[in-house]
Amino acid sequence: MKTFKENKIFAHSFLLCRFDVCYLIDPSHDLESIIEALEGRKLEGILLTHAHMDHVELIHMFDCPIYMHLDDAHLLFEDQYNGYHPNKHPYMRKALKLKYVADGTKLAMGDGFIEVIHTPGHTKGSVCYLYDSKLFAGDTLFRESVGRHDLYSGSLVELRKSIIKLMKLPGQTKVYPGHDENTTIRYEQKHNPYYIKWAKQQKK
Q1: Angstrom distance (rounded) from CA 17 to CA 147
Q2: Fewer Cβ within 10 Å of end Cβ, the chain: N or C?
Q3: What does the pLDDT look like over 20-54, one tens digit per residue?
């Protein structure tokens, strides 16, 4: 796995490879380094956690399918909501090979698979990707925090459900969020103030 760390504008991007097959999660910056890291291997697809501009800037630079949740598909092109305004998105709809995933979708990855977990709240179509005890969480879950829910198609009610859902994963699961530091499910179960609050409310 290769991480392309965030900068002031764009989120973390991740390259997952197994044997000669690779998937690229949230390609937003550092195109030359991504191509170098591929080392000639086949890019099987791009995986989008959601459609905000700081996660999607480079999606048109690769000739492969782009996997995302249908509920966020329109957001790719609505610049007043996806973060591009007053600029325009750099990709064209007809040039994108969009494929839609849902909760529980499994994508073949070498001798294993990547599982899709639908986690609405930050956006309606937000998803996380689980592979080899690694959770790529986009802007849903952060170290000791959670994603914003006050943007277009966000929902506090849905975010709460999504966080509680993720916390049922095995404690040793490593969490790779779209911003800031990595963490684990076990650490968040003990230290994430949002989860601790919501879990207590759920028990009442």
Answers
A1: 27
A2: C
A3: 999 999 999 999 999 999 998 999 999 999 999 99
Rounded CA gap, 157 and 150, in Å? 11
Q: Are 72 and 124 in contact (CB under 8 A)?
A: yes
DSSP track, the chain: -EEE---SS---EEEEEETTEEEEES--S-HHHHHHHHTT-EEEEEE-S---HHHHTTGGGSSSEEEEEGGGTGGGG-HHHHS-TTS--SS-GGG-EEEEE-TT-EEEETTEEEEEEE-TTSSTT-EEEEETTEEEEETTEETTEE---SSTT--HHHHHHHHHHHTTS-TT-EEEESSS--EEHHHHHHH-HHHHHHHHHHH-
Do residues 117 and 167 lie in contact, with contact meaning Cβ atoms separated by under 8 Å?
Answer: no
